[in-house]
Amino acid sequence: MLSPTEFLEVVRLAPLVGIDLIVADADGRVLVGERRNRPARGKWFVPGGRIRKDEWLDAAFTRIVETELGIAGMQRCAARFVGVYEHHYPDNFAAENGIGTHYVVLAYAFMLDSTVPVGRFDQHSQYAWLWPEELLMRDDVHKNSKQYFC
């Protein structure tokens, strides 16, 4: 595990690799959460997380679904691969001036029943199910989440 100083150096020098979860309900609404931390603090975003060094994609997917949504044991094969995206942010987790964050993101989509309680509140202050059209029109939804619906 890297110290915060070491991780900031990685953020300064290299892109991070992550998985984003495009979670829809049976009606076609999409789950978004209001981010508590940087980058993109205060913006609505689809759930997701970083892949760790030496972590297999299947293990990363299962961990991120559990960490972000509170759903244990979900397999990557239960989701549809949407594509590879790039996310660029002017800030970073440590709010250190002059260091942006660059992610290469693997996006996966799957369906959940919107009546099932999902979400962990260490990453997001609240969650909402939004229609894609509504999500695209809102200024508080981050542009990196909007790109999945354009």
Automatic annotation (TrEMBL):
It comes from the Bacteria. The record marks H124 as: Critical for catalysis. SUPFAM superfamilies: Nudix (SSF55811). Residues 12-150 form the Nudix hydrolase domain. Binds 1 Mg(2+) ion per subunit. Keywords: Glycosidase, Hydrolase, Magnesium, Metal-binding. A motif (Nudix box) lies at residues 49-70. Its EC number is 3.2.1.42. The keyword Hydrolase applies. The lineage of its organism: Bacteria, Pseudomonadati, Pseudomonadota, Betaproteobacteria, Burkholderiales. It holds the Pfam family NUDIX. GO terms for molecular function: GDP-glucosidase activity; GDP-mannose mannosyl hydrolase activity; metal ion binding. Mg(2+) binds at G48, E68, Q123. The keyword Metal-binding applies. This is GDP-mannose mannosyl hydrolase. Its cofactor is Mg(2+). Gene3D superfamilies: Nucleoside Triphosphate Pyrophosphohydrolase (3.90.79.10). Coiled coil: none annotated. InterPro entries: GDPMH, NUDIX_hydrolase-like_dom_sf, NUDIX_hydrolase_dom.
